[in-house]
UniProtKB/TrEMBL annotation:
Its EC number is 3.2.1.14. Belongs to the glycosyl hydrolase 18 family. Residues 89-110 have a biased composition (Pro residues). GO terms for molecular function: carbohydrate binding; chitin binding; endochitinase activity. Keywords: Carbohydrate metabolism, Glycosidase, Hydrolase, Signal. This is chitinase. Residues 117-454 form the GH18 domain. Residues 77-110 are annotated as: Disordered. Pfam families: Glyco_hydro_18.
Length: 454
């Protein structure tokens, strides 16, 4: 959570010059066909088109992807059923400022036990870093997900994850293990989720072999069972994930550290069932940078870690509870507007999160689209204070970003591609400890704000 990555890749995508077209809505006449689909038109989330006697709704940005062959639960178009009659072909227009927030195909939001808008924080349970120790029983009830930092491997490639409470010599006031477990039980009884966060800045995890994969599953399961946890948070940083040369399709990865992690997470989900909570906290380098660069690239000169979380997120999309990318300790990242965005203000949170809610072409390849996640699966991470990480944004800026993403207003100069997102999950912070150290600014500012969103 505390590591800054240097963006070493060297080229930028050219901004697209394609015209944007709006297909007319079929809402006024349920049986009428929307404007005919055009292969040259650009469609964004909630825009409609018709083809071969059916109406379709775009789930995210798309161009030249036929609705008839690109519809389904995890494809770009939703088939709205047969239609009758015709309407003229589309003409250039300006996208509506606030398109419908929920496309007809949006699946129901799973029951997770979380509030509609959640406050998520990391608890320094295994180490001291100057912010002070916080006992589990003393964590305020406002925190809906508490991530225990950190479970770390015995070695980078062992897969053997260990978690121990901070020793009394480092953390004054640390509780006994029995009291810690009892406090977790009380938090869960109150409806909170307590997770083991695996990795962190110092915990490199590389599941290079099936043996490491299996050890990961067994050791993580042992920790979950011992402490009575709800699931895991994957916070792989540094060199934990990278892509081998030639591994260019995020939907079908071949790199062992990626494939084995996916298999391990699926095994944990199968073991614990529907109630298993899975969150992820990648840095922007491993997710949004994938819009420009993916792996080592076609000529082998890029950083192989670029975008390397994308295949894991995609593979686990049915089981992912929340993705909260770290919008801090980051270099500048290009957004869907093909402009560079830098951390430290509302604009960065808006642009980075919009990419997850709208979807984007990986490495600029329109045939390789990373699909939008559900609104309830997306939050963003922000430092709780100036000492917690680079990129601190005052509460007003954080709330401006959330308001933009949820309601489509107060977005500054950025035009969101994802429309409105009333089920946006909420906010993550590093960390609960730093927030207490600075008088609970993050919690006191954002918990009532999130509750008031409705």
């Amino acid at each position: 959570m505390r590591r800054s990555l240097l963006l070493t890749v060297a080229a930028a995508l050219a901004a697209s010059g394609s015209a944007v077209y709006i297909a007319s809505s079929a809402a006024a006449a349920a049986e009428a066909c929307a404007a005919a689909w055009s292969s040259s038109a650009v469609y964004t989330k909630d825009m409609t088109a018709s083809q071969s006697g059916h109406n379709y709704t775009a789930k995210w940005w798309t161009q030249n992807e036929s609705p008839a062959t690109h519809s389904g639960q995890w494809d770009v178009w939703a088939d709205n059923g047969a239609c009758g009659g015709t309407t003229p072909s589309p003409s250039p227009s300006t996208p509506p400022s606030t398109p419908p927030s929920t496309p007809p195909s949006t699946p129901p939001i799973p029951v997770t036990g979380l509030p509609k808008h959640a406050l998520i924080g990391y608890l320094h349970a295994s180490f001291a870093n100057g912010s002070g120790y916080v006992r589990m029983a003393d964590v305020p009830a406002d925190w809906d997900i508490i991530n225990l930092a950190f479970g770390e491997p015995t070695s980078a490639t062992s897969g053997d994850i260990r978690f121990t409470l901070c020793p009394p010599s480092e953390c004054a006031g640390v509780e006994s293990e029995a009291d810690f477990i009892a406090a977790i039980r009380a938090k869960r009884a109150a409806g909170k989720k307590v997770l083991l966060s695996i990795g962190g800045a110092n915990g490199q995890v590389q599941l290079t072999t099936t043996g490491a994969r299996d050890k990961f599953v067994s050791s993580v399961s042992a920790i979950i069972d011992k402490y009575g946890l709800d699931g895991v948070d994957i916070d792989f940083e540094g060199h934990s994930l990278s892509l081998n040369t030639g591994d260019t399709d995020f939907k079908n990865p071949t790199t062992p550290v990626i494939v084995n992690l996916i298999a391990a997470l699926r095994s944990l989900k199968a073991r614990y069932g529907a109630g298993f909570v899975l969150t992820m906290a990648p840095e922007t380098f491993f997710v949004q940078l994938g819009y420009q660069y993916y792996g080592s690239g076609p000529w082998g000169g890029q950083d192989p870690r670029a975008g390397s979380y994308l295949p894991v997120i995609y593979a686990m999309r049915n089981d992912l509870t929340v993705l909260h990318v770290q919008d801090y300790n980051s270099g500048s990242i290009m957004g869907l507007d093909n402009q560079w965005h830098s951390m430290g203000g509302a604009d960065f949170h808006i642009a980075m999160t919009d990419m997850l809610l709208a979807g984007f072409p990986v490495a600029g390849n329109m045939a390789n689209m990373f699909p939008a996640l559900r609104e309830d699966q997306v939050a963003f991470g922000a430092p709780s204070s100036v000492s917690a990480g680079n990129g601190y944004v005052a509460p007003a800026g954080v709330q401006q970003a959330v308001t933009c993403l949820v309601k489509g207003t107060n977005c500054g100069g950025y035009a969101v591609r994802s429309g409105t997102n009333p089920n946006f999950r909420g906010l993550m912070t590093w960390s609960i400890n730093w927030d207490k150290f600075y008088g609970w600014e993050f919690r006191n500012s954002h918990e009532p704000f999130l509750n008031a969103l409705g």
